[in-house]
Amino acid sequence: MTAPVCTSASAAAAAPARQTLPHPRLAPAGTWLYPSFASYVHARHPALLRAARSLTANTSDAEDLLQTALAKTYVAWERIEDHRALDGYVRRALLNTRTSQWRRRRVEEYVCDELPEPEPRSGADDPAERQALRDAMWRAVLRLPARQRAMVVLRYYEDLSEARTAELLGVSVGTVKSAVSRALGKLREDSELGLAR
Predict the structure, then answer these.
(1) Which H, E and C letters describe 66-121, residue by residue?
(2) Average pLDDT, consecutive stretches of 10 residues, N- to C-terminus, the chain (197 residues)
(3) Which of 1, 34, 58, 76 is most buried, by CB atoms within 10 Å?
(4) What pLDDT is attached to residue 175?
(5) DSSP code of residue 154
(6) How far is CA 67 from CA 73, 95, 124, 136, 154, in A?
(7) Which of 73, 74, 53 is nearest to 64 (CA)?
(8) What is the pLDDT, as a whole number, of residue 87?
(9) Residue 70 and residue 93: Cα distance in Å, rounded?
(10) Could you give the CA distance from residue 91 to residue 83 in angstroms, rounded to a whole number?
């Protein structure tokens, strides 16, 4: 006797498995022809989504991939004999679907006599320039008095409101406004920031 792949999948498959119903594509929208399929998806969705995430670069693609694999599984539900091995079936559908997507992707490359040179970047678009400006800004913030530095960090680095900043520091909103205004004035006059710009 074979051991079940996972207890959750076995429990989901223990529900009424086969029914003689019309083909799934002919079902009215929003209805499940196979309640055991719905139970399986509900029980195993987090684990299957993790498997899909391991095959793709981001969450949206993983969700789309899992949705496609589950749709294929749903269409084949009556043909799947061993419901204890559903995880393996869905994982194989994930892998096959991802492989098909990869094979279908188009790579557009054209042969040409001369390689096109990229346009030179302006200083604002240069990543090294942006990083140098970021570093200079952070050094200038560190030169501010501790109280002003805390307020600038909470307001602009943490993106908190004036009211929330005042609440966290135990001061009034007016104090936050005036201290941040003075700090921004000091940053505008900072000689190192003038050179980095």
Answers:
(1) HHHHHHHHHHCHHHCCCHHHHHHHHHHHHHHHHHHHHHHCCCCCCCCCCCCCCCCC
(2) 42 42 44 78 90 87 92 88 85 89 71 74 71 87 90 88 91 94 90 68
(3) 34
(4) 94
(5) I
(6) 10, 13, 42, 47, 41
(7) 53
(8) 87
(9) 8
(10) 14
- Residue 156 has what DSSP assignment? I
- CA–CA dist 25, 141 (Å, integer): 62
* Coil, strand or helix at 33: coil
Supply the pLDDT for residue 103: 77
Does residue 50 contact residue 38 with C-beta atoms inside 8 Å? Answer: no
The helix-helix angle for 173-189 and 127-142 (nearest 10°) equals: 120
Amino acid making up residue 88: G
